[in-house]
Amino acid sequence: MNFLRKLFNNKESERDNLIRQQPVALSLDDSFVHHFINKGGKFLYCTKIDEVLNNLQRIIAENNWKHIICNDVDLLQLTKKLDITTQSTLKKELPFFTSCEHLIANSGEILFSSNQLGSHKLPVLSENFIVYATTSQLVKNIGEGLTGIKTNFKGNIPTNISSVKNYSITDTTDDFLNYGNNNSKNLYLLLFEDL
After folding, report:
1. What separation in angstroms does the CA of 133 have from each of 71, 96, 115?
2. How many beta carbons lie within 10 A of that of residue 84, not counting itself?
3. How far is Cα of residue 62 from the mean position of the Cα atoms in its chain?
4. Digits of tens for pLDDT over the chain (195 positions)?
């Protein structure tokens, strides 16, 4: 009897191990959100522009911000509907409301370029970012993101391409490849469903 019990128990544990080892294939948006949240990002999904406005107002109220930086013409139209003062000059002490180039699904990173940052490097900008992005900006990896930038801006490729990799400003992980270039941000993502 013990022999049969051991035989069946071993087969069950082997089957359970095989099930646990199966790779889980997540969609691009699920993969991005999983990695983004694990890195400390704050994610708000929106299906209507009214939801974007409502969530933006809540973020501003939650942090008691009276002024934000916004130099994106389209996003400035959104901020006009809110009770907040906007300015275009980048200052480290004010939160930065911006768009992005791409959302990188396999790492949860957000890719920016000179179109959003100008000539400023990420570490010298505000610790507080509010990013507006659409689901059509999701790409599988950084290579697809760079290819997307090259395709979208044929002949006039933006410079200063960089990404935010960590969304916890208190994280002091030392990576010798990024020494002196800490680009951690307290980041809110307003992801708008456009597909």
Report:
1. 15, 14, 14
2. 18
3. 20
4. 555 555 455 556 666 665 566 566 678 888 999 999 999 999 999 999 999 999 999 999 999 999 999 999 999 998 998 889 999 888 889 999 999 999 999 999 999 999 999 989 988 899 999 999 999 999 999 999 999 999 998 888 999 999 998 887 765 555 544 444 457 889 999 999 987
Secondary structure (DSSP) of 111-143: EE-HHHHTT--GGGS-SEEEEEEEGGGEESSHH
CA distances from 14 to 2, 19, 37, 154 (A): 18, 9, 32, 53
Query: CATH number of the domain at 27-169+184-192, please?
Result: 3.40.50.10420
Q: Residue 85's beta-bridge partner residues?
A: 67
Q: Which residues contact 81 (CB under 8 A, 6 or more apart)?
A: 53
Q: What are phi and psi of 135, to 5 degrees?
A: -65, -25
Global pTM reads 0.82
Q: Where are the domains of the chain?
A: 27-169+184-192
Q: Which residue type does 167 have?
A: Y
